Amino acid sequence: MENTKKIMIADDDPGIVDAVEIMLDFEGYQVSSTVNGSTLLDMQSEFPDLLLLDIWMSGSDGRDICRELKKRELTKGIPIIMISASRDIEKSAYDAGADDFLAKPFEIDDLLGKIRKHLEE
């Protein structure tokens, strides 16, 4: 079981977090979540293998969090898939250092495909 990949979801929409958690859990991933983006910047250990990060969260901009994580030695290698209901900010997600982007609402198969791609790289 130690081969289980850890995925963290950072999104302030409980419905999305619940649905994605259930699907990823079903796929065999170890899933954790936070509704507060700033908790990601407090991580010192137990880093996820991949991060699903919402761009708009109450109190924080996911792009700022992404930029900060990509600057840090311990977290710069974590693939970050940014999620947003706004398709027109896809470029800004990549500019912030995101490894991938997914617009809401999304198909779970699209999400799983992106996750697999980044975890296998």
Automatic annotation (TrEMBL):
This is Response regulator transcription factor. It comes from the Bacteria. Residues 6-119 form the Response regulatory domain. The keyword rRNA-binding does not apply. The modification 4-aspartylphosphate is found at D54. One of its GO terms (biological process) is phosphorelay signal transduction system. PANTHER family: RESPONSE REGULATORY DOMAIN-CONTAINING PROTEIN, STRESS RESPONSE REGULATOR PROTEIN 1. Keywords: Phosphoprotein.
